[in-house]
Structures are given as structure tokens and as C-alpha cells.
Design brief:
Blueprint: E1 5-9, H1 13-25, E2 29-33, H2 36-42, E3 50-54, H3 62-71, E4 80-85, H4 92-97, E5 102-106, H5 110-127, E6 134-137, E7 140-143, E8 148-151, E9 154-155, H6 160-171, E10 176-178, H7 179-187, H8 196-209, E11 219-222, E12 226-229, H9 231-235
Parallel strand pairs: 1-2, 1-3, 3-4, 4-5
Antiparallel strand pairs: 6-7, 7-8, 8-9, 10-12, 11-12
Bound molecules: calcium ion.
Calcium ion binds near residues 11, 12 and 56.
Length: about 240
């Protein structure tokens, strides 16, 4: 299993290190940012599995970061935990209205932090449980539990990595997934791996699922970023 990725923004260096050290010790991959701007900028290239946002930041504050994440197609359904100091005026309702999933009050114990992150991941995984799901788009059908893919009701010969790549794209249909994220999720490579692996497998997949792989309908290339499973194009087929 590849590691789940967490982006955290926190301007206090020692808290940032505390978060990174302890979540990484629990098997997560953590990218830290000093400002909300930096985090939002990185989200144009890659998206994590969870956000941990401090509220009081120089520049854009955590609530505004949360608001922007929720307005963006790529990040709108990624879980968010807000970090708030006890003496800060924090409107819980506002935070949750902006789309935060949970909040942690500082000072927090390491155990609480890890427990909250784990609990949120569990919640998200429960609501996303689609391993028994059969998904159909146009003339493509994917049976997640049997790991089978059909085109026009004919079984395709898809090796495991191609299957996982297709499944990930379909489950995130409409969202742009960067090469790095696809690599990390499907191959479990480290962040700066060989992203050409992804392109090669996309090419194989297109040869199998597209009617004309030089004019792909299902898997779109998003130049300079990665790929997107186009649910609209598929529905119109
Ligand atoms: Ca702060």
C-alpha cells in the first residue's frame, strides 16, 4: 500500500516539525508549508489525501485556504482538519460551513493529532467503499471486486497496474490527477519517481479502452500536469 499524503500549513516551525515527525512516524507522508499561498500553489501540481490547516497564518489565513480548496474541483472533496489555538476566536460553525471536516485545538497532544487524522481517514474510506462497485462509463465497465474491465461487454486483458490506474482515474473522474500522484498511488514510488512510467501505462490503457487511441475520449491528457478521466465525454458516447 502506498502512503497517504498529508499537506500541512503551519507558520510555527516547531509545531510544523512536531506534526511532520509524528504523522510520518505513523506511516503518512507529510509535506509542510509555511504559508497558505505556498500550499495552494503546490495544489496546482499535486493534491494530497488530507489537509491540516493552521488558522492564524501570515498572509492568507487557514479559513481562506479552506474556502479556496473547497472551490477547486481538484481539492473540493479532500478532507480538511483545521488547527486552532485555544485563545483564538474561532467560529467552529464557520469552519465547518467552509467545508472543514474536523478541527483540533492547540495545544494538542501528539496522540490526539494522530488519532484525529486516523479517524478522519477511516470515515472517508468508509464512505468511499467502492470495492464491490461495478462502474460503467459509455462502453466501458469495470468490476472492482473481480478486477475485470469490459469494453462492449468483452473482457479486456489488463495487467494489475493498468487496472489500478484505470480504477483510480475512474473513481476520481472529472478530476485532474498529476503524474506524481498516479505514480505514488499505483506504484507506491516516492514522490519524485520516474513519472514516464505513468505515461507508458496510460498509452497501453488507451490502446485497450479507447476506440481511437490517438483521439482519446475517456482519458484526457492535461498538459504539463497529468491525466483526467473525462466523465462527460464518456456519458455522451
Ligand atoms: Ca499560526
Amino acid at each position: 500500500m502506498s502512503k497517504q499524503i498529508i499537506f500541512t500549513v503551519e507558520d510555527e516551525a516547531h509545531i510544523q516539525q512536531l506534526i511532520k515527525y509524528n504523522l510520518e512516524a505513523n506511516g503518512y507522508k507529510v509535506l509542510t508549508f509555511d504559508t497558505g499561498e505556498q500550499l495552494l500553489e503546490e495544489c496546482k501540481r499535486t493534491v494530497p489525501d488530507l489537509f491540516l490547516l493552521d488558522i492564524m497564518l501570515p498572509g492568507v489565513d487557514g479559513l481562506e485556504v479552506c474556502r479556496q480548496l473547497r472551490q477547486n474541483l481538484q481539492t473540493k472533496s479532500i478532507p480538511v482538519i483545521i488547527l486552532t489555538a485555544k485563545n483564538e476566536e474561532f467560529d467552529k460553525v464557520l469552519g465547518l460551513e467552509l467545508g472543514a471536516d474536523d478541527y483540533i485545538t492547540k495545544p494538542f497532544s501528539v496522540r490526539e493529532l494522530v488519532a484525529r487524522v486516523k479517524a478522519l481517514f477511516r470515515r472517508v474510506n468508509l464512505s468511499n467503499q467502492n470495492d464491490s462497485e461495478i462502474i460503467s462509463y459509455g462502453n466501458i465497465t469495470i468490476d472492482c471486486s473481480r478486477r475485470e474491465v469490459f469494453k462492449d461487454n468483452k473482457l479486456l486483458d489488463l495487467p494489475l497496474k493498468e487496472f489500478e490506474l484505470l480504477k483510480l482515474l475512474i473513481l476520481n473522474r472529472g478530476k485532474v490527477l498529476s503524474r506524481e500522484i498516479l505514480l505514488e498511488k499505483v506504484w507506491g514510488f516516492d514522490y519524485y519517481g520516474e513519472t514516464r512510467t505513468v505515461d507508458v501505462h496510460i498509452r497501453y490503457l488507451r490502446q485497450k479502452i479507447e476506440d481511437d487511441d490517438s483521439n482519446p475520449v475517456y482519458i484526457e491528457t492535461i498538459r504539463g500536469i497529468g491525466y483526467r478521466f473525462n466523465d462527460k465525454g464518456a456519458v455522451n458516447k
